[in-house]
Design goal:
Blueprint lengths: L2 H14 L10 H13 L9 E6 L9 E5 L4 E6 L27 E11 L2 E8 L13 E4 L8 E3 L1 H11 L4 E5 L1
Parallel strand pairs: 1-8, 6-7
Antiparallel strand pairs: 1-2, 2-3, 4-5, 4-8, 5-6
Length: about 180
């Protein structure tokens, strides 16, 4: 099956909500993310929430988690996109270069919310050498259901709540 046909089939599956798997947050990633949170605490204003994206899971699975550090529990668990040019089921190619249309990973700082061409969105700033160009590349969180050109798209019914919880300088950690 060619790549375009496979991508179309995956978009249909994702749009219909088929095959969504609700696996819990990996405790090893949570521990690593908490360490990263402590290292970056001086840069954070919104210290309550920690967002973790686990790109080791497929695009068909829940792989975005918002963890409430005060309550010590996951408050959002959702699917999240990766860039089409990064891979089909799993992102395997990453870039920090402008125009690459590939996903990037590492630690990010959530920015301001705004109304963009895709709806309610949020800018982010890269904190790692692997994502320093995130803002310049216009890598943002916005609503959507399939692949992106590097943005983090979440389902429309999750997007607004997600952004309202984590905007304003909270930590986002993306693992590959």
């Amino acid at each position: 099956m060619n790549k375009a046909l496979l991508a179309l089939l995956l978009m249909v599956i994702i749009s219909l909500g088929w095959l969504s798997v609700g696996a819990p947050l990996d405790p090893v990633l949570l521990r690593k993310a908490k360490q990263e949170h402590r290292r970056n605490r001086g840069k954070l204003r919104n210290v309550r929430y920690l967002t973790i994206i686990d790109y080791r899971r497929s695009i068909l699975e829940d792989r975005l988690y918002v963890y409430d550090l005060q309550k010590q529990e996951t408050v959002i668990q959702s699917r999240v996109s990766h860039a089409f040019r990064s891979g089909i089921l799993y992102p395997t190619a990453f870039s920090n270069a402008e125009g690459s249309e590939q996903s990037c990973y590492g630690s990010f700082l959530s920015g301001e919310a705004y109304q963009g061409k895709f709806g309610y969105s949020m800018r982010i700033d890269g904190l790692s050498p692997t994502n320093t160009q995130a803002r310049k590349r216009s890598v943002v969180f916005h609503p959507g259901r399939t692949f992106s050109a590097a943005c983090y798209m979440t389902e429309p019914e999750v997007n607004e709540r997600l952004i309202n919880l984590i905007k304003g300088k909270s930590l986002i950690v993306v693992y590959k």
